[in-house]
Amino acid sequence: MPTYPLKSVDHALQVLAVLQTGAAVTVGDVAQLLGIGRSSAHRVLSALVHRDYAEQGVTREYRAGHRLPANPAGRGPLGRLWRSAAPAVKELAEQLNETVFLQVLRGRDVHFVATVEARQAVRVGDRTGLVLPAHMVSGGRAMLATMSDEDVIALYSGSRLGADPRSLRHTLDDVRRKGFGTNVTETRSGFVALGVAVGGTEDHAHSAVSLGVPEFRYVPGRLPEYLTALRRAASEIGAVIAKPPRTARISGDDGRSPSRPTQGRRGE
Hints:
Elements: H1 4-20, H2 27-34, H3 38-50, E1 54-56, E2 62-64, H4 77-96, E3 99-106, E4 109-116, E5 131-133, H5 138-144, H6 149-156, H7 165-178, E6 181-184, E7 191-199, E8 207-214, H8 223-241
Antiparallel strand pairs: 1-2, 3-4, 3-8, 4-5, 6-7, 7-8
Helix pairs in contact: 2-3, 4-8
């Protein structure tokens, strides 16, 4: 069995596992984690950036790209987001006895960070880890509506996702006017969703909480009740995540955080 290609794949997978926690890493961090030179670590990160599994910020640190599904169990910003949001999300699901989702916006996609399912036999199921186009889902529309028209146009410039600019602008204007996003059987038959934006921090630019209800059980007359509960939950989550986060650290396979290297190996 060849070892070189497998080692390259293994290196990429280890870095993906770290990025999925929401941690930010440097070339030096990756070199230390993998036990390779800085030039080799840079090549691994560059390949992930090229495929949109990683992105580099202005601080030269690398974070998860929009194609990498979120992992709420991680120790980084997404892990903190879920731990901060969990009480409000669980309370919302308990109060309405319907399924509740926590979502984040990455690029043009919405990542489902966590799900708390309803207790009822017929319910909307767990969607944790799912990635869907933001303009098609309630939480995504709510998050996009917090952006300026110019930023939305720039985000969708050159997109092949079928998001017609005029239609999208009309949809987002409606969301801004109402204060919430909707998805009525657009991504799943028999499924109605309502989404409210939470707000942003430096770690995760936008997040949202949404409610999923089977279409046959959705009663328009309960909309004020749904929205009051959603907005209260979003407000509670926003207040918690607005607190300054601790610096994320990365860990090796044994769970220990490697020390930052003083310099990389030469000649690699």
